[in-house]
Amino acid sequence: MGAPFLITIAAMALLSSLAVASDPSPSQDFCVAINDPNTAVFVNGKICKHPKVVNADDFFFQGLNKLGNAANQQGCNVTSANANNLAGLNTLGVSLARLDFFPYGLNPPHTHPRATEVLFVLEGTLHVGFVTSNPPNNMKNQLFTKTLNLGEIFIPFPLKKKEGLIHFQFNVGKMNVVAFVGFSSQNPRVNTIANAVFGSNPPISPDVITKVLLLDNKVIDLLEA
């Protein structure tokens, strides 16, 4: 056997002995470490119920069969089934939501900091899309859009573990729309871009926002109001 062959075998043996792993994704905004276990209150998720007192209702949820009240400024309502109202989902890493749209209703651009998702249209026609993260070399963020009809599916995050991309849904028809979304987290949470930028408490400095958006201070004051 030649030297190149032996080197290849040695390299393969080395690679086969390596393991790559990571901590599980957090299911809450933060979990500050403490050294005294007697002061521990929060865990990364929820404290588990004793198996002796678990019952069928812990795995049951009602509500996704009902029309959500979308009579609001956006014309959209989200009804969630997650670990906060369906206790049996704790530690399972999945959740579900129903989206109801009035005609021309909008689920505005937002992100889910802890989940990817898959969206299914049950009724109506829904325009959906997502924007890629900042690309290198001063390239523009790419927009992917699709108009979905009954029974069609769209994945706002096409890559595994691609959390956080900005996405939206818009009812382009004159009829109500019903859609369902599955999440890869028991508590995906949501970060609505406009609310975060213009509605934080305390507010972001107008000097920061005007520089980012190239807008006049008076326009920023109006948006924050």
Explained architecture:
- This protein is an alpha+beta fold and 225 residues long.
- The radius of gyration is 23 Å and the shape is globular.
- It is built from four helices and ten strands.
- 16% of the residues lie in helices and 24% in strands.
- The protein has helices spanning 3-16, 193-198, 206-213, 217-224, and strands spanning 76-81, 95-101, 106-111, 117-123, 126-131, 143-148, 153-154, 166-171, 177-183, 191-192.
- Among the domains are: 72-189, Sandwich (Jelly Rolls), CATH 2.60.120; 194-225, no CATH class.
- The chain has a five-stranded antiparallel sheet, with no helix packed on it.
The name of the CATH superfamily of the domain at 72-189 reads: Jelly Rolls
Largest sheet at a glance? 5 strands, antiparallel
Continuous helix count: 4
The mean pLDDT is 84
Radius of gyration from CA coordinates: 23 Å
Strand order of the largest sheet: 1-2-9-4-7
Shape: globular
Short summary of the structure?
The chain is an alpha+beta fold and 225 residues long.
Keyword list:
16% helix, 225 residues, alpha+beta, 5-stranded antiparallel beta sheet, 10 strands, Jelly Rolls, 24% strand
SSE order and pairing:
Blueprint: H1 3-16, E1 76-81, E2 95-101, E3 106-111, E4 117-123, E5 126-131, E6 143-148, E7 153-154, E8 166-171, E9 177-183, E10 191-192, H2 193-198, H3 206-213, H4 217-224
Antiparallel strand pairs: 1-2, 2-9, 3-8, 3-10, 4-7, 4-9, 5-6, 5-8
